[in-house]
Write a structure and sequence with these properties.
Layout: E1 6-8, E2 14-16, E3 20-24, H1 29-40, E4 45-49, H2 54-63, E5 72-75, E6 78-81, H3 87-96, E7 99-100
Parallel strand pairs: 3-4
Antiparallel strand pairs: 1-2, 1-7, 3-5, 5-6
Organism: Truepera radiovictrix (strain DSM 17093 / CIP 108686 / LMG 22925 / RQ-24)
GO molecular function, one term: electron transfer activity
Protein name: Glutaredoxin
Length: about 110
């Protein structure tokens, strides 16, 4: 098995995954926990702080029914708020996109 994070294609073969976009704020505890899990399981992501990017803040509000809900994860156009973080929410998001966590990494 490769050390590169993998996704399963339509035929069940492994393929490299593109990064998740994670919208955050500096004060968000749920964001810290989500980042920790993504790092621990070697899931690539890029972080956008909505406090520093007004367009990103507007996007987050648009996809969350007018709420500035963070963390908001986006993958292949699908957005989901993980506010009120639970491992089940993160696992559901990853499963929906057939993203498979790798063995835990030290954080």
């Amino acid at each position: 098995m490769s050390d590169t994070p993998q996704k399963l294609d339509e035929e069940g073969r492994e393929a490299p995954i593109s990064p998740i976009t994670m919208y955050t704020t500096s004060w968000c505890g749920d964001c810290v926990v989500t980042k920790s899990y993504l790092q621990k399981f070697a899931i690539p992501f890029r972080e956008i702080n909505i406090e520093a990017d007004p367009e990103a803040a507007e996007f987050v509000m648009k996809v969350n029914g007018g709420r500035r809900s963070v963390p908001t994860l986006v993958y292949n156009g699908d957005a989901a708020s993980l506010s009120g973080f639970s491992r089940a929410k993160l696992d559901a998001f990853l499963a929906r996109h057939q993203l498979r966590p790798q063995r835990p990494q030290s954080v």
